[in-house]
Design goal:
four-stranded parallel beta sheet, alpha/beta, Rossmann fold, globular
């Protein structure tokens, strides 16, 4: 049984297979008369819509479930609820705060478990990012990806996916907001990070429900992706996982300009969700 909780669950051949399946047309109806449980502890426009449509394209029926409808670990144990969902669904997908919940569900091994986002990982976003890069540049291997912003779940999964695909990944973060990991190339100055980059990527300064202090905003202000920063990488394309805050992490002329591919990237969330589920069901 294949679970997909993080990019670390994949080998290079698995990654290549998911990307190939993401572009397979027409989509095989492997979920006909089957359900996919979509458990959301926090809302998302792209994740819900992309997962529901990807499930429908595979012939299945998505069931949106809010946190209060289940009560993992309070109303019922995690194993009991996982077994219950597996009675009805071919795949259980979760968008959760605690990554450990997904790991506990996967250990039950009653149905394949898919991570739609956790505090530490966002594999579906990274898959969409790589598919977008491949479509834009015709390759992933050897591409330089410069991430400007916090070392968070998005940048962590993208760093892991880039390494797996043979791309160079560098991140520029304010002091105290980086990985602090010798395995990840870090730069303090955004201008240094984007030098020679093929892709410039950023994310919001404050994630949903995160610290919105003046101190945090002051730390991130020098890390805005604006026209001057993009000129340091004159051939680079711009990506953002969305939602965006124009005037904060990115200026409107950058995200709305001709070098931006954020809408293709958003659409690819649906295609790679479909590819990921196909890969899981092959196991």
């Amino acid at each position: 049984m294949r679970h997909l909780l993080s990019i670390r669950d994949l080998g290079q051949s698995d990654l290549n297979r998911i990307l190939a399946l993401s572009e397979q047309q027409p989509a095989p109806k492997v979920l006909t008369d089957k359900g996919v449980a979509l458990y959301f502890e926090k809302p998302s426009a792209r994740t819900r819509n992309s997962m529901e449509l990807a499930t429908a394209q595979l012939g299945g029926h998505p069931v949106y479930i809010q946190k209060d409808e289940l009560g993992f670990g309070t109303r019922e144990s995690v194993p009991d609820l996982t077994h219950t969902l597996a009675c009805y669904h071919a795949i259980i997908a979760g968008r959760v705060f605690d990554h450990g919940l997904l790991e506990e569900m996967a250990r039950v091994n009653a149905a394949p478990v898919l991570n739609m986002l956790s505090a530490t990982d966002h594999p579906l976003q990274a898959l969409a990012d790589l598919l977008t890069i491949k479509q834009l540049l015709g390759r992933i291997e050897g591409v330089k990806v410069a991430f400007i912003g916090e070392a968070n779940n998005v940048s962590r999964s993208l760093a892991e996916a880039s390494a797996l695909a043979g791309a160079e990944f560098v991140i520029a973060s304010p002091e105290g907001y980086g990985f602090g990991n010798a395995d990840v190339q870090e730069a303090r100055d955004p201008a240094d990070a984007v030098e020679g980059a093929d892709i410039v990527y950023t994310d919001v300064w404050v994630s949903m429900g995160g610290d919105d202090s003046d101190e945090r905003r002051a730390a991130f202000e020098p890390y805005q992706v604006d026209e001057a920063l993009m000129e340091r990488a004159p051939s680079a394309r711009f990506l953002h996982c969305l939602p965006a805050r124009r005037g904060e992490e990115v200026t409107a002329p950058v995200i709305d300009g001709s070098r931006s591919a954020v809408w293709r990237q958003a659409e690819n969330r649906m295609h790679t969700a479909r590819g990921a589920m196909l890969w899981m069901l092959e196991g």
